[in-house]
Amino acid sequence: MPLAEPYPDRPPLRSRVLPVAGGHRLHVEEWGVDEGIPAVVLHGGPGSGCSPLLRRFFDPARYRVICVDQRGAGRSEPRGGIDHNTTADLLADLRVLRETLHIDRWLVVGGSWGATLAILHAQDDPDAVTGLLLRSTFLARASDIDGFFRDAPPALREGWRTLVAQRELAQAWWQWEHVFSGKSGAPPACDAAMLDGLVARYRVQSHYLAHGCFLPAPLPDLAARLPPVPTLLLHGSADRVCPGDGALALRERMPYATLRWIDAVGHDPAHPAMADVMVRALDAFAVSGRFEP
Prior knowledge:
It is a single chain. It contains 10 helices and 8 strands. With 293 residues, the protein is of the alpha/beta class. The protein has a domain at 14-141 and 215-288: Rossmann fold (3-Layer(aba) Sandwich), CATH 3.40.50. Helices cover 37% and strands 17% of the residues.
C-alpha cells in the first residue's frame, strides 16, 4: 500500500491577532471548513511556531484546524519575548483561544514540546478535549535536556543557557538540531532574516529548557490524571531528541492509550513514514472519533 501523503496546502479560512495577558499578541490561523471537526495544533520548540506541514496532516474538507503560534514564537509578538512566558501562561492562552472561537471541545494534536503541552492542556481543561494525538512526546526530564546537548559542539553545549542574541550560537543550535533529529541532508543555509528568527526561537527555547519547561510534576504523573479520551502516541524508534523510554513511561500511566512505534524514524515530522501514520490516524478520527481505521 502506498504511503499516505500530507494534503495539499490551501489558503486559510481566516487569521487573527489574539491579545492575551502580559502584553503578548498571538498569531492564529484557521484552515479547512467552518463546519469541520475542531482541532487545535500545538507546535514544538518551545518557540518554533506552526509550520505549514502541521496543518497538512488534516483533511481540509473534514476539519476546522486552528494553528496558534505560542508566546514569543512564529508570528506572535513580541517575537522571542520571554517575559510573562511560562507553561501556565500558554495554558491560560488556550482557554482564551477556545472561548474566543466559541469552540466547546476540540481534538488536540501536538508534536514534541507540543505533545507535552497537549497533555498539560488536557489536565488543565479536561472537558475541552475530544482526543489526543501525541507525536514524539518530550518529557522535559533533566536527562532529556542534557542528552540533547551532551555531544553538541562545545560552544553550544556550554552557552545555550544564556542564549539571548548570539547569532553564532543560534546557527550552531539550528545545525545541531538538524543532525540530532535525524533529518537527511545538510541544514538549509541561514540568511540574515532566518538568523534573526532563529535567535528569537532559541531565546524562547533556552528560557523553557533552563526552567525544566515549568512542569509542575513529572509528565507521566500528570498524564495519569487525564480523562480517558481516545489517545494515540506515535514515536520514532530512532528518535534521539525524545528517547523512547519516555513514550513507554507515558503508556504505562495511560493504559487506554495506543502506542505505535514508527520504525527507523527519528524526530522528523516530515519523514514519509511518520506523515503516513499521522494522515491515516486523523482520517480515521474524522470518520469514527477514534484513531484506528
